Amino acid sequence: MHRLLIAAFALVFALNAQGKTLNIVTTTADLASITREVTGDRATVTSIARGFQDPHFVEPKPSFLLLLRKADLLIVVGRELEIGWLPALLDQSRNATIRPGGPGYLDASSGADILDRPTGPVNRSMGDIHALGNPHYWLDPANAVRIAIQVQKRVSVLQPENAAFYNSRLESFKQRINEANKRWTAMLAPYRGTKIVTYHNSWPNFVKRFGLNVVGFVEPKPGVPPSPSHLLALTNLMKREKVKVILVEPYFDLKTPQAIAQRSGAKVLTMQPSVGGTPDVTDYFKLFDKNISKLVAALR
Amino acid sequence: MDVLGFLLVPFLAGLILTGIHAYLGVHVVERGVIFVDLSLAQIAALGTTVAFLAGHDLHSETTYFWSLGFTIVGAAIFAFTRVHHETRIPQEAIIGIVYAVSAAAAILAMSKAPEGTEHLKDMLVGNILTVSWKEVLTTAVLYAVVGIFHYVFRRQFLAISVNPEQAQRNGLNVKWWDFLFYTSFGFVVTSSVTIAGVLLVFSYLIVPSVASMLFTDSIGKRLAFGWILGAVVSALGILASFQLDLPTGATIVCTFGVVLLFLAIVRLLKPRRVAVGG
After folding, report:
1. Domains of chain A (ranges, CATH numbers)
2. pLDDT of res. B165
């Protein structure tokens, strides 16, 4: 009886999905951009968080509930990035399909290369630790491909009739990312091993991919102002290691980084971690184009 | 139909908040301790942070009792610092100091926590849009209990709020009743803040009481006026938030502001008649 019900449910679901465009909701604009690469015009893809918002903190709005209510598929960054705001929205949206474990829920991190997974006891010297690993993994082009593969698999299950179409779009995306990645790697090749400091630990995947070396963080804990001794140690470290650049996300206050930069002779560089952070960054490729050219200009 | 379903739960939450806070607001305004709710909520938050630091889960019962324990300590502080004749230190000063110190202590505690602190801040702040049926029901029961308690002892509570000197002369133990008042008040505020956030709870507490004082002096009429106002503003604010797609809590707070301004203008244009006799 139970199995029969599931079979019937799956059939109804497949029939419903057939022929109509999928409603896909993503939590961040980066996931939306990557998903659009796969689905093209056969799905409506909407992002909840805007690119200029800190995805840890999103103020729930009524339209998010309606979006989630109508969604066939919800794609999340996962790794507890959205833990502060998404669970309550999901509860209220009353859409069983897109709940964790449902056919319409996809955790994009499931196939990605995740860094900073704590092994053994967690302690203060390790900086900001996410128990499930660092959630800023989308800032590595190789992970973008891994995310796209997950998306392609899932939308092909939801719309089997479009599977070939989605597959060819995925192949095209892989090819373009590979080409772009060669270009980006070449641009940053002269700066391999360069030491930098970042505000929040948002860039481990990015620096690993492009061979940069993060030697310290401005704010050891989000929401906790750095202590004078931390600032002093960081300034001295930056002088000693000749760090030229402090990377800051646009939603953090620039005052503290600027004070450190002044004392250590470094430059503060604002790099956006997400698509849509500024109006000209409309997709994943433009995000890297812009960030990398800014970074090269600052390091030169 | 969908929209209506989403509207209903926040609106019910708004009604429940109105029910208890418009009442407590009368006391708070009478006592002149306007910011006591922020202060108590911050003490409760400090309790949660300390529990989290001690290794308890944020949503566990242990954590809840830690936060309740801190709230009771706060209530005791406020009950015993109410009047200080020798130094004339105003109670608002104590409330402000407790707020600042407990907020700073929470920051210190967070800086020592090994993980997950970036979510902690968010979890202490509720959002009325995403409140669940279960929360609404448990809160309704909880506030009903507090409401009944206050109804049974309404004479004592009113006496210590409106005229503590007189109450003392009549043989009431003012410090004890103050402690009971602040404990039940802190209990309510702590739950409300996790549902609706600090700004909204403050508005539900103060605005109905202040608005009603524009038109009447009688405690009973002020209560009735406050309840109606809270219900109307909840409905208007939630509708506006859906129509304009704005964050719901902040929209209700601004609606409170706009309605209060409107009532103040009405009051200016139509001065009430001075009560005869009395």
Report:
1. 2-182 (3.40.50.1980), 184-299 (3.40.50.1980)
2. 87
Question: Are A41 and A72 spatial neighbours (Cβ–Cβ below 8 Å)?
Answer: no
H-only helix segments in chain B: 2-31, 36-53, 61-80, 91-112, 117-123, 133-152, 154-162, 164-169, 174-196, 198-213, 219-244, 248-269
Contacts of A89 in chain B (CB under 8 A): 130
The pLDDT tens digits for A209-239 are 999 999 999 987 665 667 888 889 999 999 9
**How much is the ipTM here?**
0.74
Query: What is the spatial distance between Cα B190 and Cα B187, in angstroms, rounded to a whole number?
Result: 5
What are A43-67's pLDDT values in tens digits?
999 999 999 888 888 888 999 999 9
Please, what's the b/e burial string for B235-269 (b: 16 or more CB within 10 A of its CB; e: otherwise)? Answer: bbbbebbbeeebbbbebbbbbbeebbeebeeeeee
The pLDDT of A275-289, averaged and rounded, is 95
Return the pLDDT at A2.
54
Nearest to A83 among B9, B119, B127 (CB): B119
pTM score: 0.82
B116 touches chain A (CB under 8 A): yes
Q: By C-alpha distance, which of B208, B207, B200 is closest to B249?
A: B200
Residues in chain A with CB shorter than 8 Å from the CB of B113 are 221
At residue B244's C-alpha, the angle toward residues B238 and B245, to 5°, is 75
